[in-house]
Amino acid sequence: QVQLVESGGGLVQPGGSLRLSCAASGFTFSSALMYWYRQAPGTERGLVAWISNGGAVTNYAGSVKGRFTISRDNAKNMLYLQMNSLKPEDTAVYYCKTANYWGQGTQVTVSS
Questions:
Q1: Which residues pair with 76 in a beta bridge?
Q2: Beta strand 18-25 with 78-83: parallel, antiparallel or unpaired?
């Protein structure tokens, strides 16, 4: 069955960096579009970034463009989100997604 397991979240100060990882299994990862979403308390889950199956095409929400980088390693079935220059408003649970499948999420808290 499809499994998506996120890791790498935590508490970081404003201006800091984190790298999220998503380990994928149960499907042909190299053929799948992959997404990162996030959800802050009291808000709807929103798209952060997506990446094409080969990794050549990426797209970002305007609020993270220039600060976040989505990438993938098809040999390892891994999806990544490098987050730099983090702001308090980036605080959320971050989820990876493919098709109709979601991971369990990883909490990112940006606070001094």
A1: none
A2: antiparallel
